[in-house]
Amino acid sequence: MAFSSFKFSFYLFLVFLLGIASAQLSTNFYSTSCPRAISTIKSAVNSAVAKEARMGASLLRLHFHDCFVQGCDASVLLDDTSGFTGEKTAFPNANSLRGFDVIDTIKSQVESLCPGVVSCSDIIAVAARDSVVALGGPSWPVQLGRRDSTTASLSSANSDLPGPGSDLSALITAFSNKGFTANEMVALSGSHTIGQARCTNFRTRIYNEANINSTYATSLQANCPNSGGDDNLAPLDTTTPKFFDNAYFKNLLSQKGLLHSDQQLFNGGSTDSQVTTYSNNLVSFKTDFANAMVKMSNLSPLTGTSGQIRTNCRKVN
Ligand code: HEM
Ligand SMILES: *[C@@H]1O[C@H](CO)[C@@H](O)[C@H](O)[C@H]1NC(C)=O
Prior knowledge:
Radius of gyration: 21 Å
Largest sheet: 2 strands, antiparallel
Strand order of the largest sheet: 1-2
Distance between the termini: 50 Å
Strand content: under 5%
CATH architecture of the largest domain: Orthogonal Bundle
Order of helices and strands: HHHHHHHHEHHEHHHH
Number of domains: 2
CATH class of the largest domain: Mainly Alpha
CATH topology of the largest domain: Peroxidase, domain 2
CATH superfamily of the largest domain: Peroxidase, domain 2
Bound molecules: protoporphyrin IX containing FE, 2-acetamido-2-deoxy-beta-D-glucopyranose
């Protein structure tokens, strides 16, 4: 009796261990199944960023837009077809998200090394980390073993990704909905120390807002007219847009946030002191950013037998 109950508990323990193994990601997930996957992704990212620094920013943003919409499951990569609606036409994504070709290139390289093994969602997560490193930012351990979705959600992409017109309270809420503190939201917003935005997303700010440096506003107006030029670009960090540093926060102190949502982080509210700290302390920004990225890249992954390993990142197998 005692022995069989021991056996039963041991059986439960094994089931429990299996449950953990299938629900959790690990940094060495591909170490035997595809040992060259991680270095292959890194080389491809390095050459894409060497060709165009902005691609590093675009790949980082792709990971954010993947993870905030039904978790980090590569749902963002699925193309629309006659019978399938993906996320690419959502307001935050349309005519804006970039880097799909780089992901395709990486996927085909990794497929020829180890067919059917490495997920598209893991490729995005590693590419985002390698992009930040390539631009001089911090590194972080990327947990692996995510699987790819067979679904996407246009409506969640429209509702869950914060827009550039958001006030501080809306930003805090959007991140809190995904389990992030306001501090983590501020750290993650430091991503805007790299990359570019379109005129349509900052026009209202540079013509109508009061909390913007007037010299800066005037200089932006030259390439972002009152009407037309919607797709004209300006750097999110006016000083060092190709370098992952804390200049984004320094800019906010002199009212040089490009988006309304950027300047909200330093506008007399609860996040001002953290912006000041990051503007003075590069190490604390990098540390907090890396920790928040680890958390972001763990948002509801598909593991075990859910989802699939897509052969082509743009479509369900
Ligand atoms: C806090 C709320 C956020 C808002 C409202 C926001 C909004 C935006 C907008 C409107 C753009 C420009 C898009 C365009 O004009 O086509 C942009 C670019 C970008 N965002 Fe955010 N974002 C936020 C947070 C984040 C986070 C958390 C990350 C990454 C972890 C991120 C990474 C980027 C990057 C790297 C770019 C430049 C992309 C490129 O040059 O291709 N953003 N964001
Ligand atoms: C606005 O920007 C100019 C030029 O960069 C700078 O000299 C000035 O100090 C800024 N003004 C404020 C209020 O921060």
